[in-house]
Amino acid sequence: MRDSKQLEAFAVFVVELGLEYVFGITGHPVIELAMEMQTAGLQYLGFRNEQAACYAAQAYGYLTRKPGVVLCVSGPGLLHVVGGMANAQVNCWPVLVIGGSCPQDHEGIGGFQEWPQVESSRPYCKYAARPPSAALIPVHVEKAVRLATYGRPGAAYLDMPATILTQRVAGKKVAKILRCPPPPLIYPQPQLIEQAVNILANAKKPLIIVGKGAAYARAEKGVQDLVYSTNLPFLPTPMGKGVVPDTDEHCVSSARTLALQQSDVVLLLGARLNWMLHFGQPPRYQKNVKVIQVDLCAEEMHNSLQAAVAIQADIGPVVHQMSQAFKNRKFNFSQTSSWWKELRAKAEKNKQAVGAMAQVTSLPLNYYTVFKSIEDLIPNDSIICSEGANTMDIGRTMLFNRLPRHRLDAGTFGTMGVGPGFAIAAALYCKDNYPKKRVICVEGDSAFGFSGMEVETMFRYKLPIIIIIINNNGIYSGLDKETMRQIQDAGEATQVTPTRSLTVETHYEKIMEMFGKKGHFCSTIPELEKAVKSALKETDSPSIINTMIDPLADRKTQSFNWLTESKL
Ligand code: ADP
Ligand code: MG
After folding, report:
1. Residue 249: what are its φ and ψ, rounded to 5°?
2. What is the whole-number distance in angstroms between the Cα of residue 542 and the centre of ligand 2?
3. ipTM for the complex?
4. Ligand 1 atom with the shortest distance to the CA of 215
5. 409 ligand 1 Cβ < 6 A
6. pTM (whole model) above 0.90
């Protein structure tokens, strides 16, 4: 028999650290632990694949700054989680994974689901360890939570062999429960603020880039104050959207290429100069662009480009001090400057081009018309989860975020399969804090396939997530019905271009029928509008709106083919 007292202590301990949710799939050897966690007051959510559980846990960590816990079984269970850990680590989001593992006395001789789990997790984690004895579990749990949340957040893994989970320890021998206070706030060096403000005040074409680090930092008030009081243009990264509302007049997303390419000074707030920001290099930036980098991670400084000023600090105090310094100088970047005029002219031109595409209602539909219709119907404060290639990229420009941390997408790692898990975490967060707020999960048809079975999880926990599938029968683009039929009749399906390989007009909405509900299949704008309105009335069940678009629909022409650019 297992010593449930021991497990109970473990579970109570996790609760005392302030963690609330456990996402996972239970099985040997963590069944009792899962039960004890529930008894101790943690809310346990059972998923259909551990990877999606890990996506949910990290999104919960991003939304709340408290790591979600992932509980998984040994071997394959942990290996399914690994993709999730990597995503958390690359996105800098906190998550704590607890994996059961094979009993130590079966190790090396072919134990059930035996696998080197600590070694396997290490490249994907800030901390990966196996507590050497049950008595030391509290020390390691506290350390794992601390490492996941302090400094640059990330993943932590704790390995729990069945032998440790069943070990008996006298109460007095169990290590004392340590508290893990919130991470310390790092203040900037005053002279660096002064330097940064000087450079910005003398810039001809200044630009603020707001990244998801600013969202994680809860720095929205300070960033807004800085933007509004200085009148500087800003550009959000995908998940930096909403820190300052996309609809604000200082937002230059519609002139993104021009803003990046011509700016002479960039204030980088919680964003890395990685592929997403084109490494800060020509041809996407000026050769001599001066970057003022603000990041709490010292190792991130000067990455890809030598920063003019490198401020290692929390964004909140930095933007507060900068705003003060600008106010003292009575600085205000002129509305009538040639920079603002250029940006506004370009933004206006792009808005008109997109607006025209969004008017076209001929069938099959295009992305822009579909997204315009969705944007017009969903509440302004919705949390939007999104993945897919064109679906995510075009959706990002058409679906506005007015609030911080209201967009969750494929992120820095470009991961497909994250949508349903992220949406579940967002829906739990809304249920606990903003019961009327809606979660809209906008998925490409290919992206949806990765974790589609989590609809059952949503249904089980009565989460009213609205899943909108933008269905083009493929990856990037698909085939129409007639062409696909001819190919299949000729027995040549394996010859179809790999990207256009999905079944034509798959009725994903019929998944709802497994739960006695009806999904929505739409090919026209009136059908889509009706479906979205009806889904918004659901309060305790997910909805699926499967929207067919032109299999060859594409993005508007881009000036740069970003992925094929090379630094060499
Ligand atoms: P994006 O995808 O929006 O470009 P990244 O994930 O590349 O953003 O970068 C986010 C950056 O924010 C990371 O380098 C991380 O270290 C940093 N960061 C996270 N929290 C804070 C904070 N509180 N203050 C400053 N920087 C932060
Ligand atoms: Mg597709």
Report:
1. -65, -15
2. 21
3. 0.96
4. 20
5. no
6. yes
